[in-house]
Amino acid sequence: MSIVKKRLFWPSLILVVMLGINVFTSNQFLTIQDGHLFGTLIDILRGSAPLVLVSVGMTLVIATGGIDLSVGAVMAISGAVACLLIQDLGNQNSVASVLLIIGIAIAVALVLGLWNGTLVAVVGIQPIIATLILMVAGRGLAQLVTDGQIINVQSGPYSTLASGFFLSLPVAFLIAVAAVVLTILLTRRTALGLLLESVGGSPTASRLAGISARRITVMVYVVAGGFAGLAGLIYSADIKSADSISAGNLIELDAILAVVIGGTALIGGRFSIIGTVLGAVIIQTLRITVVALDIPDKANLLFKAVVVVALCLSQSPEFRAKVFGRFKRRPAVEKVAA
Amino acid sequence: MRKTLSVAVFGGLLAVSALAGCGSSDDSAKGGDGGSGDKIVLGFSQVGAESGWRTANTESIKASADAAGITLKFANANGKQEQQIADIRSFITQGVDVIAFSPVVTSGWDAVLKEAKDADIPVVLTDRAVDSQDTSLYKSFIGSDFKLEGKKAGEWLLKQYEGKNEPVNIVELQGTTGSAPALDRQSGFQEAIKANPNLKIVKSQTGDFKRADGKTVMEAFLQSEKDIDVLYAHNDDMGLGAIEAIKAAGKKPGTDIKIITVDAVKDGMTALAAGEINFIVECSPLLGDQLMQTVKKVKAGESVEQRIVTEETTFTQEQAKEALPTRKY
After folding, report:
1. Mutate which of B224, B228, B251 to test chain A, going by most A C-beta atoms within 10 A?
2. pLDDT tens digits, residue range B206-259?
3. Do A243 and B240 touch (CB under 8 A)?
């Protein structure tokens, strides 16, 4: 099998091309400043962390044949809870209290995931409806928590989550890497991945084969909730405030797009975590490239749409066969004719 | 069994979302018993809650309605025009006395405004204008002159570089694409800085009036432009996001890059007083009282001005330090 036919070849190529553009347009693609790495590449890696986290959770949910529309709302809630609690701290720079609050916010997100999972696996509501409930109500909840205001915090340890550096790499990026590595280890080094794919393929057959399909389904929603909660914390730490309206707004669609670019089928079954991560990084790179190329903002969405369409077409074997195959097949036809 | 359980869950959730989604539920409840009296019922459709400015604007309207004894039916469009049209339609069906709204975008209002006119419900615009040719579709437009705000920002900048003969690179963070404040603040600013050919806008992108977008776009600006002298942000929130990006790039906001914003909300004023912003053009959100006066006049059949401009000022760093302690929003 030639490299061109590998599933992730085309998305990787598009990413490399876009990064190439940024190498030229950016005056510091990758440099060292204040003892840590800095530049466009670092901005992209750091900026894509929330989307990577949300998308990896989404991949697991989609692998079981479900979908989670509530991730954006969960982001808003976790950021709102964290900022509200930090605001009330006597000393906002106390690392222990901030860590505790981060724990509380993630716990809230896990509970919201459990709620989704229960609606889907126990009550038996269709995933798109079950998570739509939290998507709509959740944002209202977040606004209720913040009282419709933007809550500002001045906590050093909290903002480290998004803007800090460890071993000269952005902390947000390291968090995303840790989550991805953990997920890959759990799904590919244990039987869990196989179980996920079998539940996505056929829940009934899996149950008859002795797999606790219900428990697996609840679990993926809990994980997706937890990852979304973590993403919400990074988002709010980035701007040092909780903005319950715009936090995670429409991120569920970006996440689904990342999953699709990564080659996971929306009907469930086979999934690719690495593909999803690639998809999420492409989406973030696209966002930066639009500015770098000076595309007028009225044409932003059109430009993004063109790239995404090109990306999806390039991944379709039929399309590739029609466009590129023509050049290869012709000699064969001539041979027959002769 | 499973069915009843899911019905119960749904019911519970609907109740929760009704509570959460409707922040002004107490106001509309009051409308129920006050309906028999001759209290004016005002239907107000707000753009959303995208920034600190908007929140202050909403609070001003709610408080003024309370004080003026006007029953307020409040709807939040969350930045979506179709939602806002639906909200206005529902006000028409409910037969409110007056409709007021801040349009999400400038175009596409003729049909729904015509419906209101046909139903004999007067309409007052607040904060943002519409581009309808037929000005009989609304009674009055209360709000800031965004073009003037842009001009004030540009004029301050002109003064800073008066007599200096060096190129000045400006980057601009625009508001929501197609919205009146974004269009007018951009054109007003451009007109003002034309006077000095050294002042050049080198990059201009939308940050959607949001902090996070302001930060992301500014990061990209900083990477692709070597020398940025001035940042002009169409609102405080985008400017505040950009400040984070400038700090992360190892530069000093307010010193290495001069920052001009519009709005003067508390967070912005705090940054101005701290020297991280250089100049803020005020865009006052406190137009609740003016709105209620106009509503009463319109209801009584009195004539009102077609255009009511809110009084606004500008702030330098020193003025911000003085004004901050007594600032209401």
Report:
1. B224
2. 998 899 999 999 999 998 888 999 999 999 999 999 999 999 888 999 999 999
3. no
> Residue B101 pairs with which residues in a beta bridge?
B45, B125
A272/A275 Cα distance (integer angstroms) = 5
Which residues 10-29 of chain A have a CB within 8 Å of chain B? 22, 25-29
Tokens of A248: 């995670």
d(CA A17, CA A204) in angstroms, rounded, equals 44
Q: At what angle do helices A300-314 and A273-292 cross, to 10 degrees?
A: 150
Please report the pLDDT score of residue A324 as a whole number. 73
Domains of chain A in sequence order: 3-325 (1.10.3470)
**Residue type present at position A247:** A
Contact between A196 and A187 (Cβ < 8 Å): yes
Kindly provide the ipTM of the predicted complex, given to two decimals. 0.82
Asked if A171 and A165 count as a contact pair (C-beta separation under 8 A), the reply is yes
Alpha-carbon distance of A191 to A194, in angstroms, equals: 5
Count interface pairs A-B at CB distance under 8 A: 121
Beta strands B258-263 and B230-233, pairing class: parallel
User: CB-based burial of residue B150 (10 Å sphere; 0-12 exposed, 13-18 middle, 19+ buried)?
Assistant: buried
pLDDT band at B282 (very low <50, low <70, confident <90, very high): very high
DSSP strand pairing (A165-166 vs A169-170): antiparallel
For the record, the structure tokens of A171 come out as: 């902390």
CA distance A245 to chain B (A): 6
- The predicted model scores a pTM of 0.81
Q: Give the residue from B257, B270, B212, B219 showing the smallest Cα distance to B237.
A: B212
Owner of token pair 């209202």 = A140
Q: How far is CA A1 from CA A6, A274, A329, in A?
A: 8, 20, 17
Q: How far is CA A326 from CA A239, A314, A318, A319, B141, in A?
A: 51, 15, 12, 11, 62
- In the Cβ-directed half-sphere of B236, how many Cα atoms lie within 13 Å? 25
pLDDT < 70: residue spans in chain A: 1-5, 325-338
Domains and CATH numbers, chain B: 25-144+285-311 (3.40.50.2300), 146-283 (3.40.50.2300)
Give the pair of three-digit tokens for residue B130. 């519409």
Instruction: Give chain A's end-to-end CA distance (angstroms, integer).
Output: 29
A238 and B220: CB-CB below 8 Å?
A: no
